[in-house]
Design a protein that fits this description.
4-stranded antiparallel sheet, 4% helix, 42% strand, single chain, 2 helices
Length: 252
């Protein structure tokens, strides 16, 4: 999987899936648990943070990827904090052992990405992968299998560090993870919303220095902003609607 070439040559950034190691430590794997390659199969919703101090510094990526029953990535889409987006081609594969330990071929190929180690949790829906790249980037990919999406990072607790906003597309639930780099320091539930609504961005729409949440109704084309004070909704405003074939691409 290539990524650095995206910023240098306009090539596609590839992403993979995972979840925070802090949560995995809180989940004891039963001795009887068994894992197989097919446990990786499905659609994964993910976010990544990575850093290379000698080049572009820290950045975020978020994406949807599909994995088949052999552990091969078969495609997906991505966007990132450098305002880049595109398709994720197939190519990389993952292996998993009977204990749920996950890895990819190492070292990564020139211009590519690899996963020296990772862990699938007992529910087989949460995966953590350490990331390393031939150009020197290191980071962590975090994600959930099946029923969720992850929105653009925003600082919801005003500590100067980006947090992660999650939405469950099956139940309509919404959660914020408070982050200190790649460590989860806390979490907060937000009010739910019907699943026809999608979170499409976060930005300070009312000038109070707090990130607000931009929603779009994927059935009617309606658009709404939730004004936020941290994780508390202080108000809302309807925006003009637009036909559903139009997609909001900013702010992110």
């Amino acid at each position: 999987m290539k990524r650095r070439s995206l910023t240098k040559n306009g090539m596609i950034l590839l992403l993979m899936v995972g979840f925070m190691a802090a949560l995995l430590l809180a989940r004891a794997t039963p001795a009887s648990a068994a894992f197989s390659q097919s446990d990786l199969a499905g659609t994964w919703y993910l976010v990544e943070t990575a850093d290379n101090p000698t080049s572009n510094g820290p950045f975020w990526s978020w994406a949807t990827v599909t994995v088949d029953a052999t552990g091969a990535i078969t495609g997906g889409t991505f966007t990132n904090s450098m305002n880049e987006s595109g398709q994720i081609p197939s190519g990389l594969s993952l292996t998993i052992d009977a204990n749920g330990l996950v890895s990819s071929p190492m070292p990564p190929p020139p211009g590519g990405i690899g996963f020296p180690h990772g862990k699938l949790d007992p529910s087989k829906t949460i995966l953590t992968l350490a990331v390393t790249e031939s150009e020197g980037d290191v980071g962590l990919m975090i994600g959930i299998k099946g029923g969720g999406t992850v929105s653009v990072p925003a600082d919801f607790n005003a500590d100067g560090k980006p947090d992660i906003l999650w939405r469950n597309t099956t139940t309509g639930a919404n959660v914020v993870w408070f982050m200190d780099g790649t460590t989860i320091t806390g979490a907060a539930d937000l009010p739910g919303a019907p699943v026809v609504w999608s979170i499409v961005g976060t930005a300070d729409f009312n000038g109070d220095t707090h990130p607000d949440i931009l929603w779009r109704n994927t059935t009617t084309g309606a658009n709404v902003v939730w004004f936020m004070d941290g994780t508390t909704i202080t108000g809302a405003a309807d925006l003009p609607g637009a036909p559903i074939e139009w997609t909001i691409v900013g702010p992110k």
